[in-house]
Every structure is written in C-alpha cells, then in structure tokens.
Amino acid sequence: MSLRKRFIELLAAASILVLAGCGNGKETEAELPEVKLSVWASGASRGLVIESMEEFKQLHKDEVKLEYTVSVEEEDTCKTTVLADPKAAADIFCFPDDQLQELYMAGALLEISEDKDAIIDSVGGPDSGAARVAMRDGKLMACPMSAGNGYFLYYNRDYLTEEDVKSLDRILEVARDNGKYFTMDLGSGWYIYSFFKGAGLTMERSPEEDCNICNWNSTDMPYTGVMVTECMLKMATDPGFKDLGDEGFQEAVASGEVIAGINGAWNAEKVSSAWGRAYSAAKLPVCTINGDEVQMASFMGYKLMGVNANTSSPEWAVKAAEYLTSEEAQLKRFKKIGDCPVNLNAAQREEVQAAPAVAALTEQSEFGYAQNVADPFWSASQIFGITISGGNADGRDLQELLDEMTAGITEKQD
C-alpha cells in the first residue's frame, strides 16, 4: 500500500471518529434528564431563594435540564397548607421546627438520607439542638436552615442605655417621657409566652397525646396566672406601649415612633437601616410580677427545609434542599435577611459574631425554650392576648379569662 493511500485511509478514519464524537456529544446533551422543581419560601426570602436556585441550576447544567418556580408560602402557615393537600404542595418548603412532628406523622416529608452524616455534623452533631429537632426515629427528616427562630429586644441607643434596657418598667418610662413607644405583639401567644414562662408557669405539647399541657391559670404557684396577667395589663395600658405585629413594628421603627421592641432576627436589617449607629439589641428585660423582678423567657427554635414525600424528582429535590441550606447559602441568608446560621462554620464567621441580633439571641438563649406546642395553643392564646392588649375593656374577671384560655390551649385535637 502506498504512503499516499495509507494517509488518506487514516484521515478518513479520524474524520469518522471526530464526527462520531460530535454526534455523541449532541445526543448526550439532548438526553439530559428534565426536572421541574417547585419551592415555597417566605415573602422575605423569595428573592434570595430564586437567586440560589439559579446558582444551583447553573452548577448542574451539564447533568440536568432544570426548571424551577419559587412561590410565597409563609413559614408559619406551611404545615397547614401542606397537610391540606400534600400532593399539591411544593417539592421543597420551609417551616419552623415545631411543625415537623405533624408533617412527619402525616408522611409528608421525604427522608434526607444522602449526605445525612455530613449535614448533622455541620450543625454540631446528633446531640445539637438543630439535629434533634430535624430528626425522628434516627432519620433526618429536614435540612436545618437557620437558628435563632426566637426573639429578643431591639433598642435605640439615642434614647436607651444598656442599663435602661434591663428593665421593662424603665423602658416604658423612657418611651413615654420622650413621646415614643415600646412595642411587642400581645395578640400572639408566641410572645406572651415570655411572661408566663418567665414566671415559672408551664405550656408545652403533651408527650403522650396530641394536646398541650398548660397551667397558665394556676392559683397555687409562687406567681399565679392572675399576677402575670396584671403585669401584662399594666404594660398594655401604659402610654409608652403600643401593640404592633410584625409589619407594624417595621413601619414604626422606620418612622421613629418606636424606640424599643421585642421581635426576631429576621427584622435586623430593617432595624439597622432605620436606626443606623443607634441600633442595638439585648436579651429580654425583667418585668415586675407581684412586686418582684422576673426575667422574661422566650421561645427559641430553628427553621427547617423539607422535601415533599410526593415529589416526582426526589434525588434532585434533596440535592436542591441541601444546596439551599449549605454553609454559603446560610451565610447569604444572614447577610440579606438576617437569618442566623445554624451551620457552625457560617455561625463562626466574624461578621455573624459581630451582629447585635446574634449577640442578643445568644444572651437570651439562657432563658429560651424549645417551641413544642400543639395547634390549639395559637388561637386560644391569641384571643386572650387581644383582650389584654385592649386593656380588658369589658372588665372581665382575670381568673375567668385565664381559665377560658387554658381550656382552649389544652383542648384535645380530633
């Protein structure tokens, strides 16, 4: 065979290989699996979740054709919406840790088995608070997303000193003397828990039945339910107090109307922007109950990200949930919306440790308790709180109000 003929044969063979290679590349691209994922996020975090999902999509663009949607579902209503129709719920959703039990019992959550040990280690190991609330029967049922689902005191240093904010009475005095307000949401059992628990009264889910144990109407404890309620009424009727929910709190801080308030870390950026150099935070103050100074308590908890057991793409839904709760994702949540990282590496970053909200949550954690309640607590405590916020305008007997609330809180669920 001539050299010329041999060269032509080799060139033809090489061309065939190149073309075959190109053909396989196009075929592989065409055969990438198509995955659609839906995510529910709070209104405050939706933009951030969209940004992170786009990053996730680009990271895996050579493995999967991903389409995603991110819709608003507030974390506190997530469980109710999911359980109303689990098959219609998003593939991935966020919720507070106290909702996990009912979601788990209903079979609505997919176990997070991939990278389980690494996720648990990242939040401090199996004995950490974050791991305990995310696990059931030895299985990881959701990815810990943030810590510090609790509350503390924000205050404006232009009006209040570190000494002032140790006492609720003093905070109210400074507020009214300056024509300003101290605020908290008395219509929420989440916040009024601080008075009763601080006074040594109990409210928690029963370990044996789907109901709550509560003695907020106690008449034989060192601090009775009536004593606690009298403390709340005194605050509610003080000219330096204004009852505001979350949105009202944000607006009043921005307008300068409020100089101190009990709220959570998710509003840290808004408070910081409004008060600037005067922005500060601390643990909850002491309140006066029956003449004694009593340290106010709080709920402390975590936010979790779960995967719907009904998802049609379990592998990619789990991967996305892990990405959305990764170290860098948690750090980004902290920077943009003030959520405190539960990932230890993220939590130990200098910028996190320097944040007043994180310092306040850490200080308050000594007086913080896990949020473990059954649903009847919320409506019964809300009705009571609204009555107290209005100064008990109808002059109802306080013990009767407490008895009614406690009966509602401890009602057994069907």
Structure commentary:
By secondary structure, the chain is of the alpha/beta class. It has two domains: 34-141 and 303-341, 3-Layer(aba) Sandwich (D-Maltodextrin-Binding Protein, domain 2); 152-300 and 366-409, Periplasmic binding protein-like II (D-Maltodextrin-Binding Protein, domain 2, 3-Layer(aba) Sandwich), CATH 3.40.190.10. The chain has 18 helices and 18 strands. Helix 17 packs antiparallel against helix 18. It is globular, with a radius of gyration of 27 Å. Mean pLDDT is 91; it is low at 2-8 and 10-27.
Helix content: 40-55%
Structural class: alpha/beta
CATH evolutionary superfamily of the largest domain? Periplasmic binding protein-like II
The level 1 CATH classification of the largest domain is: Alpha Beta
User: What shape does the CA trace take?
Assistant: globular
The whole-number mean of residue pLDDT values reads 91
Number of helices: 18
State Rg. 27 Å
What is the first-to-last residue Cα distance? 91 Å
Strand content: 15-25%
Oligomer: single chain
The tally of domains stands at 2
Ranges where pLDDT stays below 50 over 5 or more residues in a row are: 2-8, 10-27
CATH topology of the largest domain: D-Maltodextrin-Binding Protein, domain 2
Main sheet attributes: strand count, strand direction, barrel closure: 5 strands, mixed
